[in-house]
Specification:
single chain, alpha+beta
Length: 124
């Protein structure tokens, strides 16, 4: 459950940056703020993911590792293969996507569609 909550909070904090940089009228809405108190009793209010992570790394000595995770997108399309023991195995199929880039011979370059995500591991 912690990873779901963290994901939602990161998404809301990131939306603050979008509104700030897009010159979009916020209709008087205030920025999303995360308020938290750490084990040392110090309370904080942050309006960005960078601000939050900086507090954890600098003031609280947390270790934060960030990595990118990618997978081919199959949208549930797959082949089924029956093994010698009778078990069925799903084989995901890659969904092709035109990249918008042409090869030297002017043919479209097709790549497998991917999903990507960011994994944030916080320990301390």
């Amino acid at each position: 459950a912690k990873s779901i909550v963290l994901t939602v909070l990161f998404n809301h904090l990131t939306s603050n940056l979008y509104r700030f940089h897009s010159n979009e009228d916020s209709n008087g809405d205030s920025l999303f703020v995360v308020q938290f108190t750490l084990d040392d009793g110090m309370s904080y209010s942050v309006e960005s993911v960078d601000e939050w992570l900086a507090i954890l790394m600098k003031d609280q000595n947390y270790r934060i590792n960030v990595s990118i995770h990618t997978l081919f997108t199959s949208f549930g399309k797959c082949l089924c293969a029956k093994d010698l023991d009778g078990s069925i195995h799903n084989i995901p199929l890659a969904v092709p996507m035109r990249s918008g880039i042409s090869a030297l011979d002017e043919t479209d370059i097709v790549i497998p569609m991917c999903h990507a995500g960011i994994i944030v591991d916080i320990t301390g």
